[in-house]
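The authors assume throughout that readers already know how a fold can be written as discrete tokens. In essence, backbone conformation is discretised, so a fold becomes a row of integers matching the chain in length. A single example would do more here than another paragraph of explanation. For illustration, here is how one protein appears when written out as sequence plus structure tokens:

…
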Amino acid sequence: MSYPFEYFKIAYLQKYATFKGRASKKEFWYFILFSILLQLIFILLFNFILSLSLISLLFYLSLTIPGIAVTVRRLHDTDHSSKLLLFFFLRPISIGIEIIKALLSNGTPGLNRFGPNPNINEPSSGNADQFV
């Protein structure tokens, strides 16, 4: 992919609620970048009109599911379970540090228990049921 916005479109439109598989660093961080930019634009354009509070809520909710999904897939890329996000609510500081380290680190090269490396197109090993 040559355009950063393409990563956002994939995470937001094509993989809206896909929690299986892996997400590359680029897919995750470009999703975060464009989510923040869209939120800033939305705030600047619509924050002053109180009648749009329902639209604002729907807009933010529309970013929540793909945001969680891309975070789960990014954790999978670093060979971490999505349960790490659930544990965040029990011990936010220590688990939060672990999540940040996982999100910033490189993904597992090659196959891991969550699927093939998203950075390269590897042929399937024939064990498709392994990642379901």
